Amino acid sequence: MTLSAADFTFVSTLVRREAAIVLAPGKEYLVEARLIPVARQVGAASVAEFLANLQRRPNPADQRRIIDALTTNETSWFRDREPFSALTDVVLPELVRRPGANRKVRIWSAASSSGQEAYSLAITLQENLPAGWSYEIMGSDISTEMIKRAEAAEYSQVEVNRGLPAAQLVQYFERAGAHWRITQSLRRNVSFKLMNLTAPLPPMPPFDVIFLRNVLIYFDVATKKSVLRNVARLLRPDGWLFLGAAETTIGIDDNYERVAAGRTSAYRVRSAVPAGAARKG
Fold first, then answer.
1. What is the spatial distance between Cα 197 and Cα 216, in angstroms, rounded to a whole number?
2. Interval 247-272 mean pLDDT
3. What is the domain extent for residue 186?
4. Residue 55 lies in a domain
5. Residue 35 falls within a domain, yes or no?
6. CA proximity to 38, closest of 11, 77, 5
7. Which is catalytic among the residues 34, 65, 106, 213?
8. Is residue 141 annotated as part of the catalytic site, yes or no?
């Protein structure tokens, strides 16, 4: 049965209020498909019954189930590759050379889903930082289910086949029954936090690099402005921001400048862009 207009309005309003995600008309089938397992989980006979019960008796736990179900969690290891190449070839060499370097690199994977991006970043730093340097990766996501999965650090064969080279699988994973588990030596440098990027962000030390990829595309312009402004406060003055290939700060937040980073581009706070950095229009 197709989701009713009233039920779609209820869900889209909830998701926009709680997560700033815009569900445009025409997404009714997607919403219903994502909520069928949720309805079954709570013992409802249908999505319509589940939503009717929720509207009569608001339940924060069930509202959170809806948010989790409708959060896009598409991810893979070393997704899109070029940002990771830029990190290796451009960003880390600059961070290592900076004056007064404290020999520690902090990176935030700001929409880490089930953890593949955060652990990919950890592998990249593990293999490319000079001796004597340390690193810290923090992953965050709005989905409680994804945070649990990321912290468990266990992945199916299908999941590790998505972008993970065999050499890294052998070195950084161990068998866990039918799954693969990240080794403790890598996990100890990675932590995860439940976080809504559209809400006030908790106090955190500044980051050298922030991966905020494939997130802004789900927000309206006002929300994008707010997120980018908050992110800028957590980026070191000489730090780097990586967005998704279809995302940009141009026309949204003039505080950032797009610069070349290998075969891709990144964003830096304008006052911190080195005079010799290659700018991109």
1. 10
2. 90
3. 82-272
4. yes
5. yes
6. 11
7. 34
8. yes
